[in-house]
Request: fold
Amino acid sequence: MPKVGLEPTRAVAHCALNAARLPIPPLRQNFKSSRWGPLRQFNVGVVTFGVATTPADEPKKIPVAQNRRARHEYEILDTVEAGLVLTGSEVKSLRDGRANITDAFGVIKDGELWLLNAHINPYAQGGYSNHAPTRTRKLLLHKREITKLIGALERKGLSLVPLELYFAPNGIAKIRMALGRGKKAHDKREDLKEKEAARDIARAMRSRR
Reply:
């Protein structure tokens, strides 16, 4: 309330000055979703404003190794993500990007999925506890997913090949396996022609700029 005896204009100025001296409430942060994606909201007093988060804020998977030959040799029909049972030295070596899955393949034995011939280099500081580079490694899948793979491999004569090895956003090593049917020679030639045509188109578009 303005002090008694102040002129109207001075009274208004007095109220504004007292309001400016009030303590600023703490910044509170919460998260809500919207049709544009998650919103990061900040509440300052009674005013609320939001800033849409971008995909760059979200954690991404870290690639370790890819099997580019698989898409050339096989027609990919389905894929599944599996975990791996690894030793400590294998995890450290994977974080250094020292792995090769080009010649690897998957098999199912006694109702479990195994990865054969995947090469993970020995860890430089592993010492006597280092791992064998191409040892057989168990893959982790739900029982129903393994049952589905067994049926596909037995009935359709498909192959199980790895496509990529990576660390998921939560830091766990994962591998993407694919059910593939082997391509015939003419299929491979057609794929090569399509890739060459795509490269020619991309080259022509760049030259126009």
